[in-house]
């Protein structure tokens, strides 16, 4: 693994959508799937988007989420990640973003994200 995908990056890679930067699109097409992973909290965020009707999977939602988990390694929430996420010197309150950043740091991964709040913070290596 080299890269942790932020939730929106996972969805855009799966859909091969244009919001992906050229750099990320090339990475997604030229690197094996095992180069990419996601934080467990991203599955929760995706499930919430499905439930809210924001995204519409082309199959049963649970099966669709399971497919994401088979395509990309899902990194579990650990005590170290939880503790790190609440100790950032960062005013951003979104617990999902904090857990995603902490997961990247704990696993020494570059975070693939277009999130300007995360990029502006500078506490985690970002690629976009």
Provide an overview of this structure:
With 128 residues, the chain is an alpha/beta fold. The chain has a single domain, classed as 5'-nuclease (Rossmann fold, 3-Layer(aba) Sandwich), CATH 3.40.50. The protein is 52% helix and 12% strand. Helix 3 packs antiparallel against helix 4 and helix 5 packs across helix 6. It is globular, with a radius of gyration of 14 Å. The two termini are 17 Å apart. The mean pLDDT is 95.
Q: In terms of per-residue confidence, which ranges show pLDDT below 50 for 5 or more consecutive residues?
A: none
Mean pLDDT level: 95
Biggest sheet statistics: 5 strands, parallel
The tally of structural domains comes to: 1
CATH names the topology as Rossmann fold
Instruction: Summarize the helix and strand pattern as letters.
Output: EHHEHHEHHEHE
List the total number of helices: 7
CATH C-level class is Alpha Beta
Distance between the termini: 17 Å
Tell me roughly what share of residues is in helical segments. 40-55%
How much β-strand is present in the residues? 5-15%
Strand order of the largest sheet: 3-2-1-4-5
CATH architecture term: 3-Layer(aba) Sandwich
- Specify the overall morphology: globular
Classify the secondary structure makeup into a structural class: alpha/beta
How many individual β-strands?
A: 5
